[in-house]
Amino acid sequence: MIQYIIRRCLYAFPLLIGVNILTFVLFFFVNSPDDMARMQLGQKHVTEQAVKNWKHQRGYDLPLLWNNKVQGQEKITRTIFYQKSVGLFFFRFGVSDSGRNIGADIQQRMWPSLAVALPTLCVGLLVDISFALMMVLFRSSYLEHAGIVLCVILMSISSLFYIIGGQFFIAKLLRLVPISGYDNGMAAIKFLILPVLIGVFSGIGSGARWYRTLFLEEVEKDYVRTARAKGLTETQTLFRHVLKNAMIPILTGVVVVLPLLFMGSLIMESFFSIPGLGSYTIDAINSQDFAIVRAMVFLGSVLYVFGLLLTDISYTLVDPRVRLS
User: What pTM does this model have?
Assistant: First the structure.
């Protein structure tokens, strides 16, 4: 097991290097430091001296990859790539273009993102799997057909409609919860109820249909027919055997949303004014703060690779047929 984890981590390192290099190329070869300075200072009435001062204050006046003006290892270390990108591997995110400590901002904003994403994921999984099992239990009946039609309708509607509709009916008309905002401690619960409900409801359509497909593949296998022949009811068969053997594809689907637990939802947090990492990224994009965007792209890549590693390890816990070698 330990050798497998070490090997997978070694596999992930070249992938993260590639993501880091690609991100650097996109930011600094498409937009030069001069372009970045002008976007921050404003396109009109910007002097060359102001551009030089902005670049010097933020370390963008160095060469991109190779510094011929110095000697020794400083030819590499005194470059924009080394000072802005290499530190990301050690989670040294540096300072944003506006002068804020990115690492401190991430530590502060990750908790509101977790407060929204974690209950949305857990409750959403429970609701989607339960709904899918009910459709499989009543398969080939009017209840299953009605459930499929409902899922298609729900997944055909944009998530923006659920957000705006929920804010209008539940928050504005019924006044059950605040429209937007956030607070610290237990006071934040009243601000989280509506985003969590909308997140769960908007994902029922696609989630339940996908899990229903997984369960339908399992109910036609030989071990299920054997369980029925031994006298197990359909409900017992679904929960004791079908659900357990469908855990591997379920875990594979869960890993896709693992980065969102920390990175937050870009749209949800922006609409509900939640100070999480999602709104943090949106604000950085709007303000053209490339340092924050680079850090968030790299952090998302690390979380996704880590999620894949956790998924591979968890396979052995839910299915003894899988062995790590």
Answer: 0.82
* Whether residues 79 and 106 fall in one domain: no
Q: Give the whole-angstrom CA distance, residue 285 versus residue 296.
A: 11
Domains contained in the chain, number:
2
Burial class (CB in 10 A: 0-12, 13-18, 19+), 80: buried
Residue 322 has pLDDT above 70, yes or no: no
Among 67, 90, 113, the domain-final residue is 90
Range of the domain at 31: 2-90
* Same domain? 117 vs 206: yes
Q: Decide which of 47, 67, 90 is a domain's last residue.
A: 90
Residue 197 has pLDDT above 60, yes or no: yes
